[in-house]
Amino acid sequence: MKKRHTLLRLLAHIFNTPWHVRRHFPAAALQRIEQAIAASEKTHNGEIRFVVEGDLHPLAVLRGVTPRQRAIQLFSQLGIWDTEQNNGVLIYLLMADHDVEILADRGINRHLGQHGWECIIKVMQEKFRQGRFEEGVVYAITEIGNSLQQHFPATTDDKNELSNKPVVL
């Protein structure tokens, strides 16, 4: 059964082309997502990053790399863990696996925890099933921003530590 699942997953990743990502996240949608992140970050001292990836390399799939493992790797590579107040948040979408992961640094995670992120993910996935991808991401940015605002309100000396530009892989 596991071999069948691996084969099906491999095929999903092989046949998920860059066109799939562009279809759901055209340039205009990515720009609006960037603007939503920037607007959110004006209300708090946290940092939000959005990454969408169409597929993993076939060898990664064969090695059994999970979306969560990939999100952890990107969390590190993008320096989200390195914010001054440990309040960076990654929203990661892996299109081929239909998977969303939200990872947060320890500063904000201790306030919201995994259950809080799972509630946001559930709503996002429902919007994605309806074909409303941009809306799902903006919803998550808004909800995460509300939590960050509550625990890390904006200050006059706040600086933008991480780029607001979505990452498309």
Number of domains: 1
CATH class: Alpha Beta
CATH topology: Diaminopimelate Epimerase, Chain A, domain 1
Helix share bin: 55-70%
Sheet with most strands: strand arrangement: 3-2-1-4
- Gyration radius, in Å: 16 Å
SSE string, helices as H and strands as E = HHHEHHEEHHE
Structure, explained:
This protein has 169 residues and is of the alpha/beta class. The protein has one domain (2-168): Diaminopimelate Epimerase, Chain A, domain 1. The chain has seven helices and four strands; from the N terminus they run αααβααββααβ. The chain has a four-stranded mixed beta sheet, sandwiched between helices. α3 runs parallel beside α7 and α6 (106-129) runs antiparallel to α7. The longest helix is centred in the C-terminal third of the chain and has 24 residues, at 106-129. The relative contact order is 0.20. The model has no long low-confidence stretch (mean pLDDT 93).
